[in-house]
What does this fold into?
Amino acid sequence: MAISIEHYLVLSAILFLIGAFGVITRRNILVVLMSLELMLNAANLAFVGFSRALDDMTGQIFMIMSLTVAAAEVAVGLALVVAIYKHRETLNIDVLKLLKG
Amino acid sequence: MIASIILVPLIGALINGLVFASGFYRKVLGGDEHTEHRISGVIASVAVLISAILSTLLFTRLLSMAPANRHIIETLFVWIPSGEFTVSFEVLFDTLSCVMALIVTWIGFLIHLYSIGYMHGDKAYAKYFTYMNIFIFFMLILVLGNNFPLMFVGWEGVGLASYLLIGFWYSDTEKAYAGRKAFIINRIGDFGFILGIFLIFFLFGSVNYQEVFAKALDPSFITGVSGAAITAVTLLLFVGAVGKSAQFPLYVWLPDAMAGPTPVSALIHAATMVTAGAYMMSRCNVFYSQSPTAQIIVVSIAAFTALLAASIAITQNDIKKVLAYSTVSQLGYMFMAIGVGAYTAGLFHLLTHAFFKALLFLGSGSVIHALHGEQDIRNMGGLRKYIPVTAITFLIGTLAIAGVPFLSGFFSKDEILASLYDGGYTVHWIVALITVVLTALYMIRLYVLTFEGKSRITDTVKKHIHESPYTMTIPLLVLAVLSIFGGYVGVPEFMGQVVGIHDTNFFEKFVSTSILLDGTNHIGHRLLGHWTLVIFSIVAALLGILIALYFYLINPSSADKIAENEVIKPIYEGSFNKWYVDELYDYMIVRPFIYIAEQASRFDQKFIDGAVNGVASALKEMALTLQAAQSGALRSYASLMAIGAAIILIFIVLWQF
Amino acid sequence: MVTHSNPVYSAVSLVLTLFSTAVLFVLLHADFVAAVQVLVYAGAIMILFLFTVMFLNIRPEAFKFDSKYMKFKISVFMVLLLFAGYFASLGFSMGLKRHYTESVDFGSAKGVGTMLFTDYLLPFELTSVLIVAAIIGVVAIAKRRDG
It folds into this structure.
């Protein structure tokens, strides 16, 4: 069976769902962020797959952009986590309820 | 000029109300109470005097006109310009409204004069005169208006003034309730009145007197209108008159209205407001004369009322209550005449009744004033030597109302009895005759128990008895003179012929130009001649007088002994308790109504308030529930987002199918 | 990765995942992107994560399904998997063209660079601005406040 675009899309979907599962389920903020990265990665995979199938370079360019954004987001997110940890001594998102209300 | 008659009292009321009653004079201008009282009393009385003089001037103008043309109409402005239903503020000064206006303004003036003395020392002096002027204003609108809506405006307005004045001393809740009772019962009558006006507009396409009556007199038009419709109009209007003029069954407010100051009782509940019904029905003579059914109903109710009220009056012990029931009874007389179609007779009695009833009420006020508030005749007696002027004038009024010959009441009452007999209403004539006996009875009883015999007054009162001041005695004297001589404007033909004077019945000739359709139908064969009827009424009056004299003057304790008698006692109790009519109304009407009102209130509270509050609390519940979503817990946010996205995806997929 | 209780294990697993994704990119004839992925994602970002994990000295927690409605969430997840499978079968049955044409310079650094600096110059510059903003933000957030 030749590996066609559908296979990549299915893989992308599965990876995305796994990442979503991780975001919803885990208590540790850092693991949540890592799952978030997984989701982004899945999307990137889909982009590149389509780029191949449609013979258009735009997909790969966008993937690079997405990657860059992910990098920036991770940086800021981790800085926030560090700041919160210094304040609250915990990384349990069930406890960090400042957004309440 | 006619308009000024109406407007001057209004100005008086406004001045009194805005400057004095409101406290402006005292608080802002720094006046003192004494001057305020003097000025407001004078202003009010002068206002009415001006109206009276203007009315008299117009009266002379009417006299100078040919009889057929004796009506003056003035239009001031268009009040309701609504296509076909256009109502203007139009005033009509014809002979009928002239007589009414003269009565209202002159007797009103005398009573205002009287009030200056009577209300002396009362805190709300200026307010009293404001209300009195307001009353005169509305009463004049009522009698001078040229269309039904205007009459209704006056009708309602005098009802309002009556309410305000009855409950004048409202800090005593009983008095306030009396005012409320008067207004509500009046309202019931007004309901019928309004329906009558609607029907008139529906049938005749107009509410202006000239247009409506012209159409009603036109044979070609009137055949198109069913007799039942005309009867309906007359009966609906009569309902209004029953309420305003205290006939059965809507008379119960009048005795309670005695809670107001005595001049108020004299003016409103004797001479003027209660006669508005008689005026209205005389004005609508075209309708009543064309509806025999209505005529029978009116005469019957009136006769019944007259007898009923007289039967209560003979046992009452409050001087004003006796006079109140007497008023109801005499109003019954007026309506009997109107019902028979003898409008001028009824109006003549209205005139003479205004004289002697106002006199009697003012006299009783003088007594109450002299005795510092005592109103129970069981605590009076022998007052003649202390307050002679009051006593003599009161006696004159008593004799007049009893129908003693040559006084005013004799002529008017006799004319009514004659018209009843002439119309074939023999039964009603007998009832009226019996009422004459009772009238004489209770009036003489009242006089004797108050002024004659052994004095039963307490010693403290005896020290302070004094005759009333001039402002009070002069009106009494004027009214006494009128009660004696006022009847001579309306001496019937057959009496005048005896002395060789023709055209004696000036009153009838004068007023009849306004009566467009005569309603009397004379029976062909008379069993009793004119003079026989007169003899009957004189005998009846004398009978009543003698009975009263015996039981109350000659043999004073016999009255009480008779009341103890086994057979008489229940009758006495019934009469004394007004035949329990008020209690009957309370059980049959008031209580069910209050019950329904309470149910409605509960319904309102439970369901409607519940619904409104329920909506509010439901929203609050929803808000509280939704608040749970704002928990601040990231995980639930994330999961909810995922679930939401999933649902949308599912929808999109399913949409393909 | 999502089920490890020790976050360090999670991070390492993520590195492996990203590396595998890069391999997939190579299979798709997107060499430059694969390289970038390894360099940036697996190289820089995950290092950052590992730094933070170790810096914060986190003890491994028990991976308990301790949130409410866990069953509900899992069931939703399963449903989504089902849909993914549906899409998959749909896609497989439809089938895009089997032979993929390929333009010259597809996926090579030359191709990417050409596009990046001509057609997509503005996004490129904007991402650099974004990175600068991120740097400034990180420094502002995480710096010591005392003194």
